[in-house]
Amino acid sequence: MKRMTAQDIHINSQIKFLKKKQQNVCFYCKKLLKKDCTKDHYIPLSNGGKNEIENIVLACQKCNCGKANSMPLMSIKDAWNTSLKSNDILRDWE
User: Fold this and answer.
1) Which residues pair with 39 in a beta bridge?
2) Which are the contacts of 32, defined by CB distance < 8 A and separation ≥ 6?
3) How many Å separate Cα 46 from the centre of its chain?
């Protein structure tokens, strides 16, 4: 049996949810997401982040690799506000 990794546990419906919430753009650079987009732990697992959908954002390969395991400068809710300029994005998180 294949060992599940951190990347395997988020189901397709959750990824579709994130794509819709992010308007199908990279959370960091705002470029259109391609098929090879990645799931990024906003707060890295290595820094105490959880492997839950509330800590996952979709990012392009370049941004995810560039971020690596660095810590964000703001909470994910504040980042959503800054990123998408809308409080509507938070309704489903609360």
Assistant:
1) 58
2) 24, 25, 26
3) 16
- Among 35, 13, 38, smallest CA distance to 27 is for 38
- How many residues can be counted in the chain? 94
Q: ∠ CA(6), CA(10), CA(16), 5° rounding?
A: 140
Q: Which residue is associated with the tokens 């959908």? A: 53
AA letter at 56: I
Domain ranges of the chain: 26-75
pTM, entire model: 0.72
* Alpha-carbon span 29 to 47, nearest angstrom: 23
pLDDT single digits (tens) 10-48: 778 888 899 999 999 999 999 999 988 999 999 999 999
H helix intervals, the chain: 12-21, 61-67, 76-84
